[in-house]
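> forwarded from #structure-qc
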């Protein structure tokens, strides 16, 4: 396992291989990841605890927000803009295809 500190929390890579990737993430309350999309990666988010706002849209101007609670999940297809935000400190799993560096950031609170 590999732990990666992020400005919004942290992610732990549990497994990565040629077929899939599994990560456990912590999103701190009041923080959010970048507005982003993936060219190839498909990911499924499963909330373990807390409350996570996920914004989705085909453009930055047409985003829809939904709050996901423990036991709820969502699959995000390639090229769909998305952003996760901690309403509370939230722990969630991300199961995805294995493209670790497939991220295109549109907006980022942390200037990455």
């Amino acid at each position: 396992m590999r732990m990666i500190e992020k400005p919004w929390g942290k992610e732990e890579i549990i497994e990565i291989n040629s077929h899939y990737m599994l990560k456990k993430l912590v999103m701190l309350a009041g923080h959010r990841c970048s507005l982003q999309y993936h060219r190839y990666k498909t990911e499924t988010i499963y909330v373990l605890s807390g409350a996570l706002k996920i914004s989705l849209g085909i453009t930055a101007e047409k985003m829809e927000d939904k709050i996901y609670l423990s036991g709820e999940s969502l699959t995000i297809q390639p090229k769909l803009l998305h952003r996760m935000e901690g309403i509370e400190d939230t722990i969630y799993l991300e199961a995805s295809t294995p493209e670790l560096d497939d991220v295109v950031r549109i907006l980022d609170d942390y200037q990455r």
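QC bot note: The CA atoms of residues 43 and 76 lie 5 Å apart. The chain has a mean pLDDT of 96.
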